[in-house]
Design brief:
eight-stranded parallel β-barrel, TIM Barrel, 236 residues, 8 strands, alpha/beta
Length: 236
Amino acid sequence: MKPQLIVALDVPSVEAADAAVQRLPNVTWFKVGLELFTAVGPAVLATLARQQRKVFLDLKLHDIPRTVERAVQSASAHGVELITVHAASGRAALRAAADAAASAGTRRPSLVAVTTLTSLGPEDLRDLGVQRTLPEQALKLAEMALQSGIDGLVTSVHEAPDLRRAFGPAPILVTPGIRPADSAVGDQKRVATPAAAVNAGATYLVVGRPVLDAKDPYAAAEAILGEMNAAQVPRG
């Protein structure tokens, strides 16, 4: 599968989301995260559907199995095509999410599990009582998620090669923390360029501020897409 760009709609309103999408006819996928969904709810999903865009709903579902199951069912009914669950919710919740997605039939969304947030560093894991290294923690939670029927993983670019070696070409790998070489890092500690993400085996690259905050968002997205295309390498 050719790697895809997802632009994160980290904006506060449907109007702002609609304006951003209209400025980006060269982008198919958009991420709706906690900020926007909490502000406006499913209304933004309808806006994206009207513009024939694909939705990555990034709410990192982390709850008891029944609640996670119903949330996936609701998102599927809205036509969402990619949804995050949190691997730390455990095997039962992950299996419930996978079963709910499968029950959606032709509207089945793909599910990707978050293992460790890209804002976390080694010291943060120690604060949480996790003794594994970041790569070890990501690998163990990834294995549990995939065994539970989840389609793929959200991962830092830095862990992506290990996940590809461990699990092969089948899992979807979504890589946030993507920053063009001349961009500010912001609040993410583990970032990488679009080229590095593609070469690491990413399926989807998530970019927010470097596109939305650019003077010319269309040109910024084109530059990222160009870097992604130039970086594509054969995968065995």
